[in-house]
């Protein structure tokens, strides 16, 4: 990417014998919102800490705006960081917390007052200037942390699971707020999270981490609909993994014989040799429980369980060799447990993963 | 049913704390109260004049007392065989009404010569004056005095009963108290100077390094105070470890006087009291969230400013508790200044020890103890005030 603001070039980080970040390349454009998603211990925080300057890479280089920052101490990097547990200064009032970065930059008194007021208004905390952090709720503290990280108008804002400690409702509210601020101020945000929904709803791009490497990076729908690997398919959302052997290939359509003998067709750009073992991912909500139009894949299944989920039903169906999970709207399902039905999905809705 | 179980629960919990409560009462509260009582009790007149105070009960405090009273007083005087007790009595009465010195001596001689004497006015006209009898009645009937307490801070009552300073050079309690405060203050400051950085280093490390550092502070707590002081006694000698090292390194030509002076006392006491500074600070420091310093750095604070603006203010609570602990313990220190200090470095506790064991003046020992206790209490109240204000803020 030529207009990349942040550039990781072959960055590795080892602690002792453990490689935490492994030869990683990543470019982040100006104004982009990039989420890092991955299981615990996959190196997300470590990567963020290297960007913020709290850890230094074992090898490789990091540059921001074309300049290498490896040798720059954290306080000179001019990045706003929002920590997981807010990291507000407990002995200072909310206003003093937010004023802190401005004081460090030698802003004048009147300018500090003005910008602190503006920042606190932005996060809807205009009435809380004199409170101490402990006198605020979790969500309010998080908003103070956000205001503090934004008040000095940094180019880049790093957030490490900033919403992890909040309840669902508040988290969704804050997700909207952060997205809104991102759009309004045109910030570049690097956002670490555990929560796939959070990543899917907020980001321009998502990087899926596994063992210190990026398994896949791309837009939310790209990642969700076209997972490249089994890990990504299973990590983002729920999926059904079918394994089988390619029996023929033509016109971008593979015919795959599944374990158990039934065969399906899969749209694939790659022409794979017949006889090759493949794994196919199908999202539960892409499967319908009825025979439908021409060209659809159809699997004979027997319903083994139906679970009520409020807005949808989750159905376990047995193909004979494995169990499929199907997500179906409530009103279209008329089947009973034990019934034999046809599960269908289009060749475009399934995906070969490695 | 539930009431009954509630009651039995309460009985059980009372039974559980009973041993501790009894222990506290017998070994802490009771001796404390006894010492305080000794400090203010005034047994001289009542023990020297056991019968006259009952005889004076009917007296109208204006006329010359009856012959019965005068006889009782004469008997009491005659029965005083202990000259020291007589001296105390004279001093006690004379401090209430001047003139008693000559009057009592004269009367005592008279009653000793004439066993049957009953008319004291005949011995000395002054016995007609009711003021003397009032002094006798008050002294013999009184059981409390503020004399020891006043003396503890170099005050006394003049003959008119007003509180005045003792004459210059007769007592040095005030100087000693003042010196005690100064020494305790200096030791506290030294403990902060050494303990704060130490606690910070200990809190910033992990694993065996932290254990080692904490062990180094805790180890002294596991050895007896006397042993530690004795160790310093050896180390601080003119040919002790420190002076030998200094001279070997060529830093000084002769030995630096470290023992029998204030420097030595401060060094030894700082070492002995250091754990009480390090531990509170350490516990406050490890309670500070780990990400505050990185947060300060990310907001643009260079390390030193981050330290001054974030870590230092947050550790202050530990410093204050530590300072209080150290200061209060230092106020009552005895062994260390007694062994390592010179005559001019003795603290108030050695004066107390002198009165308690040397002069057998339990009243003065108790009074000085009360003064020390009061000073400590005042400090503690101030601390509570400050800390509750801080908690409210
Ligand atoms: N300072 C350190 N010393 C040694 N090992 C470390 C250090 N920091 C992190 N690690 C290790 O590096 C690995 C990755 O840690 P990191 O914090 O980057 O994971 P993460 O992806 O952020 O996980 P989580 O989602 O749980 O926060 C972990 O196994 C962790 O134990
Ligand atoms: Mg993390």
From TrEMBL, chain B:
Protein location: Cell membrane
GO cellular component annotations of the record: plasma membrane
Transmembrane segments: 181-200, 212-235, 265-286, 360-383
Organism superkingdom: Bacteria
PROSITE patterns, per database record: ABC_TM1 (PS50928)
UniProt keyword annotations, A-Z: Cell membrane, Membrane, Transmembrane, Transmembrane helix, Transport
Membrane-protein topology: Multi-pass membrane protein
Domain ABC transmembrane type-1: 177-383
Main location: membrane
GO BP terms, alphabetized: transmembrane transport
CDD domains noted in UniProt: TM_PBP2
Family: Belongs to the binding-protein-dependent transport system permease family. CysTW subfamily.
Name the record gives this protein: ABC transporter permease
Source organism (scientific name): Metarhizobium album
């Amino acid at each position: 990417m030529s207009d990349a603001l942040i550039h990781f070039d072959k960055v590795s980080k080892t602690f002792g014998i453990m490689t935490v970040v492994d030869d990683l390349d990543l470019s982040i454009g100006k104004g982009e919102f990039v989420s890092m998603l991955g299981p615990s211990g996959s190196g997300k925080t470590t990567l963020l800490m290297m960007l913020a300057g709290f850890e230094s890479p074992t090898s490789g280089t990091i540059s921001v705006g074309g300049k290498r920052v490896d040798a720059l101490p954290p306080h000179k990097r001019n990045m706003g960081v929002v920590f997981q547990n807010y990291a507000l200064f407990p002995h200072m009032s909310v206003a003093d917390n937010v004023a802190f970065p401005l004081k460090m930059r030698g802003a004048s008194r009147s300018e500090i007052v003005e910008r602190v007021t503006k920042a606190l208004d932005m996060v809807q905390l205009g009435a809380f200037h004199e409170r101490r952090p402990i006198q605020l709720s979790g969500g309010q503290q998080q908003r103070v942390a956000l205001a503090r990280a934004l008040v000095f108008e940094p180019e880049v804002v790093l957030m490490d699971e900033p919403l992890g400690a909040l309840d669902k409702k508040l988290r969704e509210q804050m997700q909207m707020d952060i997205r809104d601020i991102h759009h309004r101020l045109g910030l570049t945000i690097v956002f670490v999270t555990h929560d796939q929904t959070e990543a899917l709803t907020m980001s321009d791009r998502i990087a899926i981490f596994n063992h210190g490497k990026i398994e896949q990076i791309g837009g939310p729908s790209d990642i969700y609909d076209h997972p490249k690997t089994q890990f990504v398919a299973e990590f983002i959302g729920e999926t059904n993994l079918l394994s089988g052997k390619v029996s023929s290939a033509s016109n971008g359509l593979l015919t795959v014989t599944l374990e158990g003998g039934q065969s399906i067709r899969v749209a694939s750009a790659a022409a794979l040799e017949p006889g090759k073992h493949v794994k196919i991912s199908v999202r539960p909500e892409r499967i319908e429980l009825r025979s439908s139009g021409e060209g659809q894949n159809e699997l004979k299944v027997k319903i083994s369980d139906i679970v009520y989920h409020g807005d949808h039903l989750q159905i376990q169906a047995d193909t004979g060799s494995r169990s499929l999970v199907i997500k179906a709207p409530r009103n279209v399902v008329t089947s009973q447990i034990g019934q034999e039905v046809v599960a269908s999905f289009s060749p475009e809705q399934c995906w070969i993963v490695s | 049913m539930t009431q009954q179980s509630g009651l039995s629960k309460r009985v059980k919990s009372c039974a559980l704390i009973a041993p501790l409560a009894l222990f506290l009462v017998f070994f802490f509260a009771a001796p404390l109260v006894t010492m305080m009582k000794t400090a203010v009790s005034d047994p001289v007149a009542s023990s020297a004049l056991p019968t006259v105070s009952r005889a004076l009960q009917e007296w109208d405090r204006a006329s010359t007392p009856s012959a019965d009273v005068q006889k009782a007083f004469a008997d009491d005087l005659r029965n005083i065989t202990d000259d020291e007790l007589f001296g105390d009595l004279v001093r006690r009465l004379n401090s209430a009404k001047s003139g008693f010195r000559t009057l009592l001596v004269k009367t005592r001689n008279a009653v000793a010569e004439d066993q049957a004497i009953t008319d004291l006015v005949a011995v000395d006209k002054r016995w007609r004056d009711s003021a003397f009898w009032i002094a006798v009645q008050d002294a013999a009937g009184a059981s409390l005095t503020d004399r020891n307490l006043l003396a503890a801070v170099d005050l006394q009552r003049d003959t008119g009963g007003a509180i005045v300073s003792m004459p210059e050079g007769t007592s040095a309690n005030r100087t000693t108290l003042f010196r005690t405060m100064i020494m305790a203050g200096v030791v506290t400051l030294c403990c902060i100077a050494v303990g704060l950085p130490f606690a910070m280093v200990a809190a910033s490390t992990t694993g065996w390094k932290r254990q080692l550092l904490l062990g180094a502070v805790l180890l002294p707590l596991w050895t007896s105070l006397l042993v530690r002081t004795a160790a310093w006694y050896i180390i601080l000698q003119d040919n002790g470890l420190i002076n030998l090292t200094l001279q070997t390194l060529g830093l000084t030509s002769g030995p630096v006087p470290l023992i029998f002076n204030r420097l030595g006392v401060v060094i030894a006491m700082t070492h002995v009291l250091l754990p009480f500074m390090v531990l509170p600070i350490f516990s406050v420091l490890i309670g500070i969230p780990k990400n505050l310093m990185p947060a300060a750095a990310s907001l643009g604070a260079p390390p030193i400013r981050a330290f001054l603006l974030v870590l230092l203010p947050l550790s202050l609570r530990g410093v204050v508790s530590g300072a209080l602990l150290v200061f209060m313990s230092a106020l009552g220190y005895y062994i260390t200044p007694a062994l390592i200090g010179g005559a001019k470095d003795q603290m108030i506790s050695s004066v107390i020890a002198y009165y308690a064991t040397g002069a057998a003046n339990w009243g003065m020992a108790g009074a000085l103890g009360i003064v020390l206790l009061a000073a400590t209490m005042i400090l503690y109240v101030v601390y509570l005030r400050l800390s509750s204000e801080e908690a409210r803020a």
